[in-house]
Amino acid sequence: MNRRVLTVLLIAFVFALACAFLVYRVFRNQLSATRPVTTTNVVAAKADIKLGTVLSAADLTTTAIAGQLPKGAIQDFKGAIGRGVVSDLYQGEPILEGRLAAAGSGGGLAATIPRGMRASAVKVDDVVGVAGFVTAGMRVDVLISGIPPGGSNPSQGTQVETILQNIEVLSAGTDIQKDAEGKAKPVQVVNLEVTPEQAEVLNLATNQMHIQLVLRNPLDTLVAKIPGTALGSLFGNDKAPVKTQIVNRAKVAQQPAAKTFSIVVINGSQRSEQKFSRPEEKQ
């Protein structure tokens, strides 16, 4: 067969394959578009829901999810009504089991506290609270400052010590308390998640010392050994006094002066004197 004819047939065959592939793609897309998609209705938030809210039927709606359901998705209103929200929910967001407190635990801050932990409130100043320095979910260290009772070195003055590290913030907000005159005043309060032992330490420090919270990277979980700082050390007063070293020098016995005798020689008008050691000194 002519080589030219073979070339034409080969080109035609390749072109036919390409057309067949394109036709297959078009029909497959049309079949996929017409095929019904299986969806499942799950419970979702009807509007934005704040942490601590106890869910009611008015807070809930349903939304359709295609394919596999997220782990912990709730498909019935009964599984969500009456349970507290442990983290903020947003409108249209599917409600998962991990975002709700256990049934019967109620709402509010108590529902967000893990088993075996406690929530301890700490009053902070306006710089920490109002400026948004500390918000829920952040990690902080707790510092105390004051004059230690019965300190061994009172000249050091005020001292600062880190008593707790890597503590999670449960919530931050404003509380209304009364001052010394009985007048109501807003106070910035931060609730920290601590163990029962840490709660005792924090309560004692709150009543006796000034407390300061310092923000830390949530990925930095290292608990460092911090010796603390005294006010006197800022001015160099923490330097240990230089001890004067007393060197015991051995006493050197003084040798008695050598016994000598002198001879005077007179030669005319000249007079000279010569000294000689006694014979027993040379032995």
Strand-helix topology:
Elements: H1 3-34, E1 39-45, E2 60-66, E3 118-124, H2 126-129, E4 139-146, E5 159-178, E6 184-194, H3 196-208, E7 210-216, E8 229-230, E9 260-267, E10 270-277
Antiparallel strand pairs: 1-2, 3-6, 4-5, 4-7, 5-6, 5-8, 9-10
How would you portray this structure in words?
The protein has 283 residues and is α+β, with helices and mostly antiparallel strands. Among the domains are: 39-111, Type Iii Antifreeze Protein Isoform Hplc 12, CATH 3.90.1210; 117-235, no CATH class. Helix content is 17%, strand content 30%. The chain contains 3 helices and 10 strands; from the N terminus they run αβββαβββαββββ. The chain has helices at residues 3-34, 126-129, 196-208, and strands at residues 39-45, 60-66, 118-124, 139-146, 159-178, 184-194, 210-216, 229-230, 260-267, 270-277. The strands form 3 sheets. Strands 3, 4, 5, 6, 7 and 8 form a 6-stranded antiparallel β-sheet that branches. A two-stranded antiparallel ribbon has the order 1-2. Strand 5 and strand 6 form a beta hairpin. The radius of gyration is 45 Å and the shape is elongated. It starts with a helix and ends in a 6-residue tail after the last strand.
Question: How is the main sheet built?
Answer: 6 strands, antiparallel
| Portion in strands | 25-35%
- Which regions are unreliable across 5 or more consecutive residues at pLDDT < 50? 239-253
SSE sequence, one letter per element: HEEEHEEEHEEEE
Overall body shape: elongated
Total strands: the figure is 10
Q: Termini, distance in Å?
A: 141 Å
Mean model confidence by pLDDT: 77
Q: Give me the secondary-structure category.
A: alpha+beta
Proportion in helices: 10-25%
Rg measurement, Å: 45 Å
Discrete helix count: 3
